[in-house]
Amino acid sequence: MKCFRSVIKPGVKNAKPRDRLHKPEDDGWSGGGDVRQDRGGYCRAMLKRNEFVDTFSDEARHKRGDRSNTARAAIGLLAILLVLTMLFSLTAGASDASALGLVKHWLFPSMEELSQRDRIIVMDIRLPRIILGVLIGAGLAVSGAVMQGLFRNPLADPGLIGISSGASLGAVSVIVLGGSVLAPVAAIFGIFTLPVVAFLGSLISTFLLHGIATRRGQTSVATMLLAGIALTALGMALTGALIYMADDRQLRDLTFWQLGSLAGATWTKIAASGPIIALALVAAPFLARGLNGLALGEASANHLGIPVQRLKNIAIVTVAAAVGASVAMSGGIGFVGIVVPHLLRLVIGPDNRYLLPASALLGAILLLLADAVSRTIVAPAELPIGIVTALAGAPFFLWILLRRRGIVDL
Question: What topology in the membrane does the UniProt record assign (predicted)?
Fold first, then answer.
């Protein structure tokens, strides 16, 4: 079967709508009857396919204003800003230990002496914290972008639809029950027990959410948000029951952990969670073209040759891995996954080929800046980083809701 775009018959003046679609007589047409009667939707899908392919042609990009050069420039700029932010984070804090002094000591060891205190502060406290912040910020931002592409809704965020609560439940269960009920699991996985169990908790939450919100290939946004609220409430209830069972030492750790913090960053924690988050970040860009096709709808994506179900499964596992390992190490840090993709879409557009790597860079930058604020605003004490991100992210989320309803036009 061949499909044709809407054209006017040659030689017909004042053509009516029914005359605007025709079949040539000598083109091997074998469909039988008017194309409009194709109930299988094949022709509509093929026309959508042509439109989808045409959107990436040079002529189409030129007509609508090509943002690919802007996106590449933004990614390069973000990479430079990330390096500068990391250097700034090395010097920010209650101590006056200088990262510049450490660099001079590396380059000119005979000229620049570095005290043992400064070496410990920079190498064993600040540097692991920065690396963990980069991984977690990138993981949460990319997870938000993938979730929004998967559900085709800009309000999808791991922290708002129950995925983070599932990861928190898994992490709290290891902290409280790791020496008793979950001792065999801890013996098997060792230092990886916390991120692995948190990953399993977020994976179960994600599959439940997707199964509840999707029917006949269509995802209901209202059902997704309501199911996310229900899963979050259930996760918080079970987490509260575990906290009730915790002792005094565990309670102190859990209270600070639930607010979100990078204070406990060590090289051991990076070795435990870093590979999981890194694998998720490496896998995410390979989903970009599939997510672009999924924006047309699942039926059209299938006709484009995109394995939709496999794409969903890989996306869900990727998000669960990144969110689970991030929450296990840092606790509840919200709104990174919803703020970062929105800011970038305003600049570089919705193309996931550029949006995903840019989200990783900007997410890392914002989390490092929030961590620097948390370390300095009440120095020598430390404000939980989750409070900083919530104070910045909650108003932004409200602005998104008001803007979508047309109440705010900014």
Answer: Multi-pass membrane protein
